Amino acid sequence: MKPMRIGFLLPRYGEPNDSHMPLVMRALSHQGVIVDVIQPLDRAIDLSTVRVEHDLYVLKRTNGLALSIAGALHAQGAAIVNPYPVTVALGDKIIAARILQSAGIPTPATYIVSRPSFLAPLLDEGPLVVKPYQGSGGYGVRVIRTAVDLAAIPATKEPVLAQRYHPPAGRDRKIYSIGGRLFGVKKIFPARTQAEKHGEPFRPAPELCDIAVRCGQAFGIDLYGVDIIESNGTPYVVDICSMPGFKGVPDAASHLALYFHAYAAAERASRGQALLTSVPTETVSKGEVR
Question: Could you check whether the bond before residue 232 is cis, i.e. omega within 30 degrees of 0?
Fold first, then answer.
């Protein structure tokens, strides 16, 4: 019996580093898992050597070369969390927004244009939030109220996504799912300080839990983060992320390590392979809240 192997496709972290992933990998190593860090920018890679060598790949970096490597592994049958097709869909806000709409998730009215100037007629009905269609971390998000604001958007050859602006009542509600267990964190947007990035844990109301669970169901995943604003008593989902940072989630590293271990174990069992290591796993009902 071979020990379990998990490969992490990671970005290069700077210092100081507040990511949970180093702690997650350390916890898995202590459980007897062979953990490999895969950073494809470090060297030239002979593409013919890219083959499935792990029970599970954790795709933390969801764009660029890492995403392409994940696609090559997916084509060979690799188990990836989150799955490559879902990660691609979630990385494109146009695709993700339409999937959420089709699932009946409450979202702001959403528009796509090839040029920002085409949004001008929509300003007659009120402000818009404009964001890069493949952006993340709040980069490039801006509220557009006037034609002057619209003209200030940098020229780009990429599509532009806009949503109707709804003034948020207080902080954003971030709902994180780890294996179906839900964690709520209130955060200021945009977050600038470390304290703001970690936010304040809260117990989400049943309505928000239901919305968050249905978001995961729409994509067939149970590891993700959902951004919800509340405006005039109405919740709106404004973003969903395949592999968020889980900042502000109590003991996030331990929860993630258990999740990845259980995921890899299930993949190995589905192939009829025995496990060398075993650790207790948590049975979590869908939508359990912490």
Answer: no
Question: What pLDDT is recorded for position 15?
Answer: 59
215 domain-assigned: yes
Please report the pLDDT score of residue 2 as a whole number: 84
pTM of the model: 0.88
Left if phi > 0, otherwise alpha if psi is -120 to 50, otherwise beta: which for 65? Answer: alpha
Cα distance between residue 181 and residue 189, in whole Å: 24
Describe the chain by its helix, strand, coil percentages, rounded to 5. Answer: 35, 25, 40
How far apart (Å, rounded) are the C-alpha atoms in residues 228 and 207? 11
**Residue 31 shares a structural domain with residue 82:** yes
Domain count, the chain: 3
Q: Same structural domain for residues 15 and 145?
A: no
